Amino acid sequence: MTTTTFEVRRRVFAARAKWSAAQKLWVLESGWVREFSGGTIARYDRFNVKDLPELTEPPSYFNREVLPAIQMSWPQLRRLHRRPASCGLRRLALTVQWHRKLAFPLIAPISMLLAFPLRF
Fold first, then answer.
1. What whole-number distance in Å separates Cα of residue 77 and Cα of residue 87?
2. What is the pLDDT of residue 1?
3. CA distance 50 to 32
4. 65-110, pLDDT tens digit by residue?
5. Could you tell me if residue 44 is left (phi over 0), alpha (psi between -120 and 50 degrees) or otherwise beta?
6. What are 8-48's pLDDT values in tens digits?
7. What is the spatial distance between Cα 55 and Cα 19, in angstroms, rounded to a whole number?
C-alpha cells in the first residue's frame, strides 16, 4: 500500500516564459529548478534557456475572460453569483450587480403604480 503525501518535489522559477507554438511547450528563460527529497534540497540547477516537456498547457488555458457586470445578462450574473467563493470572485459586488440588473428596469413601472393613486 502506498501513501500519498503532498510534499513539494520540485520548484521551477523563470524570469520569463514564452510559448512555442511549433513545439507546443513553454520555453523558460533565466531561472532555476530545485528538486526536493524529504524536505531538503536534493538538486539545484540554474539555466539560461530551458524547456520542460510536462508544461504543455497553452496560454489560453490561463486566460479567463470575465466581462464587466454591466455587459452581462441577468442569467450570466446569477451563474457567477452561485459559484463558490473559492473561485476568487467578489461575491458581494456580484450580488449587488445581480439585484441591480433586475431592479433597475422595474423602477419606472413601480413608480407609476405608486404615483397613480396620488394623482387623485
1. 14
2. 62
3. 9
4. 667 777 888 788 788 777 656 555 567 777 788 888 888 888 888 8
5. beta
6. 889 999 999 999 888 889 999 999 999 998 888 999 999 99
7. 10
Q: What is the pTM of this model?
A: 0.50
DSSP 62-80: H------GGGS-HHHHHHH
For residues 45 and 14, give the distance between their C-alpha atoms in angstroms, rounded to a whole number: 12
Q: What cell numbers appear for 14 in the block?
A: 523563470
Closest CA to 44 of 53, 52, 35: 35
Q: Specify the length of the chain in residues.
A: 120
DSSP 44-61: EEEEEEEE-TT----HHH
